[in-house]
Amino acid sequence: MELFERVSKIAIDKAGSRPKLAEKLGIEYRTFAGYFSAERQHNFFPLLPTLLELYPEISRDWLWFGEGEMLAKNIKDDEYVTVPRVATELAAGAGSFLDSAEVIEELAFRRDWLGHKGQIKNLIVMTVWGDSMEPTLHDKDLAMIDISKTKPHTGHVYAVTHDEALYIKRMVVEPGRLIMRSDNRSYSDIILDYDNQAIMDKVKIIGRAVWWCHDEKH
């Protein structure tokens, strides 16, 4: 069963109809119906948290992945664990200064799901700003960083400081150099010479991005 088949089932079983569910979500039915086309389905994703707030008994695993039953079993508190979101922002662009690592909130995740991302003690969440990593990462997205993964590997996305600025970039490792590359190819590569100790002393890999999510844009 595809995601929008599951949404339709919720509309019938819980709201009574698609128009009634659209009303509960606070959107026009014409807009809601348009989300069912393949080209526009991604526009509905930011509404999924609202849908789950309306019907908290709906299983997250069933809604997102089609796994298990529609109605969630009672979840014990110890099945959730929190990951700190820190105040420092990751620049997907020109770079932001690493001012602080102050924890501004704790975000809750399912313990079993989080276990596939890394050791919980090594995970932090940071905010992305800028457009240099689009379409992978957008401005104001959240990225989960595993701070134990500090060895760069080609193709992976890392949070890295360079010359006192904090970036999130895709790494390319080549003989004698490290390339910080933007997915948005309108941005130039940042090429670091491994043999230039003065440059490498200013580089520190904070960790590898193991998960990210898109924030709703208003």
Describe this structure in words.
This protein starts with a helix and ends in a 5-residue tail after the last strand. The protein folds into two domains: 3-65; 78-213, Umud Fragment, subunit A (Ribbon). A hairpin with an 8-residue loop joins strand 8 (177-181) and strand 9. 22% of the residues lie in helices and 32% in strands. With 218 residues, the chain is an alpha+beta fold.
Overall body shape = elongated
Order of helices and strands: HHHHHEEEHEEEEEEHE
Number of domains: 2
Helix content: 10-25%
CATH topology of the largest domain: Umud Fragment, subunit A
- Work out the strand percent: 25-35%
Corresponding CATH superfamily of the largest domain? Umud Fragment, subunit A
Task: Look at the helices and sheets and give the structural class.
Answer: alpha+beta
Q: Given the structure, what is the number of helices?
A: 7
Low-confidence stretches: none
Mean pLDDT: 85
Q: Return the CATH class of the largest domain.
A: Mainly Beta
Main sheet specs: 10 strands, mixed
Query: How many beta-strand segments?
Result: 10
CATH architecture of the largest domain: Ribbon
The rounded distance between the terminal residues' Cα atoms is: 30 Å
Radius of gyration: 20 Å
